[in-house]
Amino acid sequence: MRILTHNQIGTHHANHNDDSVAVAELSDRHHLIAIVNGTDAGDKGYFTAALIATLLEKIAGEFALKNFAEKSSPTTGELLRETMAMLLEELNTLRSLLNLSQEALQLTATVGVLDETERRAELVVIGSGMVSCDGETIEMSQYATPDYLGNHLNTEEFTSWWAGHDKRISCENCLDLAIASLGILTFEPFSHDPYKPVTEDEIITFLLTQRNDGPVEQMFRRKIIYIEEKFGLLATDDVSVVRAFFL
């Protein structure tokens, strides 16, 4: 499996990128991917987004050691549930230790567990995010009442919340999977010079599903430069993408 990431600050953000990305191994066949987005409504969202991404990578490392030691083989769905339960439990503890305000925990997130052997992915979106699997892209936006990670820190209520949460996606027989923050929808002209027109859907397809010639490691950098030079567009909000190729 090949996992690529891209994370850039938006032109309307002067000081901080409020997005953070996490990628880690959960077992010899499972991988964790995540994008955490500190919202404009939050306080120091860049800090708490980075904190949560770091927590996710720590939790993944602990699960990897546990699964190796116990020679256990949890399913993709079980790993996602256990990861989210542990994240919210540890975040609740850190909230008290760091005296984090409710505003600081107004973050959205997309978290996924990938099984490279079975080419399967289980993902959960809290708040808003975008998921693309083999060319089919699903955008999930906030409801009328915004949903944030900080709303779900009561560990006693986790089981009922998890059972009723409807922003979950299962992908089977995957070859190409991507997740993205909704900053991908904020590309706007930066000058009045004439450029070739392009639609929002074409940009999404270009970034999340199309493959291009050239070194894979520089794929996203080349694409962002192409969008700027060919279409005269820059993203006003932070843009994060994680893309996994099931080999």
Task: Characterise the protein shown here.
With 247 residues, the protein is of the alpha+beta class. The protein is built from 5 helices and 12 strands. The strands form 3 sheets. Strands 1-12-9-6-7 form a 5-stranded antiparallel β-sheet, covered by helices on one side. The protein has a 5-stranded antiparallel β-sheet with strand order 2-3-4-5-8, covered by helices on one side. A hairpin with a 2-residue loop joins strand 6 and strand 7 (136-140). Helix 1 packs across helix 2 (76-98). The longest helix is centred in the first third of the chain and has 26 residues, at 45-70.
Care to give the gist of this entry?
With 247 residues, this protein is α+β, with helices and mostly antiparallel strands.
Low-confidence regions: none
Coarse morphology: globular
Helix tally equals 5
What portion of residues is helical?
25-40%
Rg for CA atoms: 18 Å
Helix-strand pattern, N to C? Answer: EEEHHEEEEHEEEHHEE
Structural class by SSE content: alpha+beta
Strand order of the largest sheet: 1-12-9-6-7
Largest sheet: 5 strands, antiparallel
Report the β-strand fraction as a percent range. Answer: 25-35%
Q: Determine the N-to-C terminus distance.
A: 5 Å
Number of strands: 12
